[in-house]
Design a protein that fits this description.
single chain; about 400 residues; alpha/beta; Rossmann fold; 2 domains; eight-stranded mixed beta sheet; five-stranded parallel beta sheet; 14 helices; binds ligand PMT
């Protein structure tokens, strides 16, 4: 029996061409025994007929906030309490903005505000709308509030462009719903992660650093916590909010990061090295600000310790996942790094390309483990992190010879 059996899913549909896929999602959810009630915005009704969803869900479709047939009994509050999960698919840019602002001027936005059930949005929109600073801010606000953003993924869009903005397929959304109710895949496990850049001081005001924003590592930390793990995130200096239920340890240099990691690595089940750790640091840090002198200046650098390799070399190492930032041949370099550093898995990404890598909101990964390879497609870093966590949970379970979380 599916974990969805008997679960009550309130499916919100907003105006977008992807609304036609919601009909298939209703069928899939009901096929696994979930009870589905559909609420549509007025714009959604331009893309798909309420009658179709009524027939498929087996329940009346609602769209009016002040519906005389229901409101004597505060029907919208009853509906908000009824749901075990509120899923809005597709979620338009406009709906995300209204949800982020906490508006309640139609039935669906009111339900999102009034329901205490987990809320998931499956965004679908034009690429430029998804990338617009306003949408990025709304997505970050919603994610910080604990709203799950499922997708979008990159591909051909209905508007004729291609890029990030496609709603996940109904089967993928069904899988996310199943995961939501099946208990976390990392339940009870302790995960230690590194994220962000390190800063290697030259003098009291200058440092050698790199472009890591921390977005990938923070998305992973959030996804691990969402999957039920107890998460400690050792992070270099970044301007990001700590994900919900994650313990953050702030560091600056590679040596500080190494100290904080090694102090905790013996007590974690999984270690993920996502930080862009400087390979070298200045041999000496000047005590005073270095003054201008000649036309040239030489800085002598010495090698930093490899934190990831150090964790993998512990007597009882955790399941160890490294990243590899490469400008070409991610598969080849990832496999070499996996062997050289003795880690269980490497997640390689292209950096310095048009899309993905440092600073961007989206990324793609090539995963390599002994005898296996998996490609994770270009998508928002949060969605990518959720997929990576699923693979890590599977590989961890196989490596430890038990069930994930067991
Ligand atoms: O932070 P964002 O802007 O979102 O960008 C994400 C990212 C590109 C930084 C991230 O996805 C990524 O690739 N992180 C690893 C960057 C890196 O340093 O790669 P590397 O190939 O140089 O290092 C390989 C691995 O060894 C990494 O797991 C790294 O954390 C680790 N390492 C490296 C050097 C060192 N002295 N100690 C380490 O532990």
């Amino acid at each position: 029996m599916s974990g969805l059996s008997g679960k009550r899913v309130l499916l919100g549909i907003t105006g977008g061409i992807a609304a036609y896929k919601s009909a298939q999602l209703v069928r899939l959810l009901r096929g696994e025994g979930a009870e589905v009630r559909v609420v549509m915005t007025s714009a959604a009704g331009r893309f798909i007929a309420p009658m179709t969803l009524q027939a498929l869900s087996g329940n009346p479709v609602r769209s009016e906030l002040f519906d005389p047939g229901h409101e004597q009994a505060m029907g919208h509050i009853e509906l908000a309490r009824w749901a075990d999960l509120v899923l809005v698919a597709p979620a338009s840019a406009d709906f995300m903005a209204r949800c982020a602002a906490g508006m309640a001027d139609d039935l669906l936005s009111t339900l999102c505000l009034a329901s205490e059930a987990p809320l998931a949005l499956a965004p679908a929109m034009n690429r430029a709308m998804w990338e617009h600073a306003a949408t990025r801010t709304n997505a970050a606000t919603l994610a910080a509030r604990g709203v799950s953003l499922w997708g979008p993924e990159a591909g051909d869009l209905a508007c004729g462009e291609s890029g990030a903005g496609r709603m996940l397929e109904p089967g993928q959304l069904l899988a996310r719903c199943r995961d939501r109710f099946s208990g976390g895949v990392l339940d009870g496990l302790r995960v230690l992660l590194t994220a962000g850049p390190t800063r290697e001081a030259l003098d009291p005001v200058r440092f050698i650093g790199n472009r890591s924003s921390g977005k990938m590592g923070f998305a992973l930390a959030g996804a691990c916590a969402g999957a039920g793990a107890r998460v400690v995130l050792v992070s270099g200096p970044v301007a990001l909010e700590t994900p919900a239920a994650v313990e953050r340890v702030g560091v600056e240099s590679a040596l500080e990061m190494q100290r904080e990691v090694l102090a905790r690595a013996g007590e974690c089940d999984i270690f993920i090295g996502c930080a862009a750790v400087a390979d070298y640091r200045p041999e000496e840090m000047a005590r005073e600000k270095i003054k201008k002198s000649g036309e040239r200046m030489r800085i002598s650098l010495i090698r930093n310790p490899d934190i990831l390799a150090g964790v993998a070399a512990l007597e009882h190492p955790p399941f160890t996942v490294g990243f590899a930032a490469e400008t070409r041949d991610p598969l080849g370099y990832a496999e070499a790094k996996r062997r050289d550093k003795g880690v269980d898995m490497v997640a390689a990404n292209l950096v310095g390309a048009d899309r993905g890598g440092f600073e961007r909101d989206e990324n793609a990964l090539t995963l390599v483990w002994e005898g296996g390879v998996r490609e994770l497609a270009m998508q928002d870093k949060r969605g990518l992190a959720a997929e990576l966590v699923m693979v890590i949970a599977q590989r961890y379970a196989l490596a430890r010879g038990g069930a994930p979380g067991g």
